Amino acid sequence: MRRLLRHPVRLVPLGFLVTIMVGTGLLMLPWASSTERYTPFLTALFTATSAVSVTGMAVVDTPTYWNGFGLVMITVLTQVGGLGIVTGATLVILVVARRLGLRSRLLVQAETAEFGIGDVRRLLLRIAGLALVCEAVMTAVLTVRLWTAYDYPFGRALFSGVFHAVQAFNNGGFALHTDNLIGFATDAWVTLPLAAGTILGGLGFPALFEAVREWRQPTRWAVATKLTVWGSLTLLAVGFLGLLVVEWANPRTLGGHAWSDKLVVAFAQNSFIRTGGFNVVDVGGLAEESYPLVIGLMFIGGGSASTAGGIKVTTFFLLAFVLWAELRGEPDVTVGHRRVATASQRQAITVALLSVALVAAGTVVLIFLTEGIPLYAALFEVTSALTTTGLSVGVAAGLPANGQLVLVVLMFVGRIGPLTLGSAIALNTRRRRYRYAEEQPIVG
């Protein structure tokens, strides 16, 4: 048993589980809630899981239910969950011991998807530096804006700036307002910095670092970086135009704004859809035609080794290239004059199919456990939980206890990743010394 627990891949979900339990215990304390009473276990568990999994889904009104201590705990849990339990633990090792052993390097490799172990020290320092710089810039902009334009006291403006900056970069989605960010929908000084932080945090550290380092020669980017960057830009454009077209005249979303404000609101909301979790429009008021678009974008999510969830942009577009190669009868799948390894193709198919199965199973279970919930609402909530997005059509808080537990499990699985969870359960890779005779069954 001890040998099994020592494996890095298995320690990743275990680390998240322990952090969730600790967060649950702290949020249950009477000095975490505004009523100064003990928080029910399920409410604390749901909130802690949502924070650590950087989902942002809530079953209570965040700004009124939790007091200062509770909000600080949510901020800390979101930061820890966003950067990764293992990454944070290894950074502590760097500071205290100023050295990294092989086991620590392998732990970070399992969490950050960094294939080499020689540059882990530099990788971790760059991750921490990027996170702190982005959050500091967002905090500064938000603090000044809230202090000068909304007459917030400086202390309140600073706390709000820090809270929302951490949520944005880590793709959390918790907000200090009952209507989330709807009250700031047309204020570009509030929504656009948060949108930028969400996009950067959702790109993924390996892709972001390489794109910045080789920005003058994008043709030299690795396949994963090309798929992540160009794929993310494509999804941003598709989502932005889709929301504009469908919601332009909808009085519950964009219809009541001037055309220039519609552009700001549509861009911000589209940036938050793929696991960002904030909402600047009433999600429950979206037109029916928007739900397939939103659910699809949530399902895809952000970049690999990022603070975002979903099946990942790389997975989605790699499958698109696999499909294109198959339709053309090509023997190999190529991206940018590079042949994609068969193992990567199998992993992409595995992640996608596991995620589809989890969404389908979760939706059926949620409908079975909850009377009267519409199919679209169950599908939306399940997809949002599994992809750690946090958007909601307003039914999560009203679900029965077993329904909320379903979302808790989905958020946990969505954060550690279906493939990581599968690897933790069935760890060993079998290598056979023989191969069976090949046969080609009829497909379709």
Secondary-structure map:
Elements: H1 2-5, H2 8-28, H3 41-52, H4 62-65, H5 68-83, H6 85-97, H7 102-112, H8 120-149, H9 154-169, H10 188-203, H11 205-213, H12 223-247, H13 259-273, H14 290-300, H15 313-328, H16 342-369, H17 375-386, H18 401-416, H19 418-425
Can you describe this structure in just a few lines?
The protein has 19 helices and no strands. With 444 residues, it is an all-alpha fold.
Structure description:
- With 444 residues, the protein is mostly helical.
- It has one domain (2-425).
- Helix content is 64%, strand content 0%.
- It contains 19 helices and no strands.
- The protein has helices spanning 2-5, 8-28, 41-52, 62-65, 68-83, 85-97, 102-112, 120-149, 154-169, 188-203, 205-213, 223-247, 259-273, 290-300, 313-328, 342-369, 375-386, 401-416, 418-425.
- Helix 2 (8-28) packs across helix 19 (418-425), helix 5 (68-83) packs parallel to helix 9 (154-169) and helix 12 (223-247) packs across helix 13.
- The protein is globular and about 70 Å long.
- The relative contact order is 0.10.
Notable characteristics:
444 residues, mainly alpha
N-to-C span:
44 Å
What best-fitting shape do the alpha-carbon axes yield?
Answer: globular
Percentage of helical residues?
Answer: 55-70%
Radius of gyration: 22 Å
H/I helix tally: 19
The helix/strand series, from N terminus to C terminus, equals HHHHHHHHHHHHHHHHHHH
Low-pLDDT residue intervals, each spanning 5 or more residues = 91-100, 110-117
Strand fraction equals: under 5%
Query: How would a textbook summarize the main sheet?
Result: none
Give the beta-strand count.
0
Average pLDDT metric: 85
Count of folded domains: 1
Structural class assignment: mainly alpha
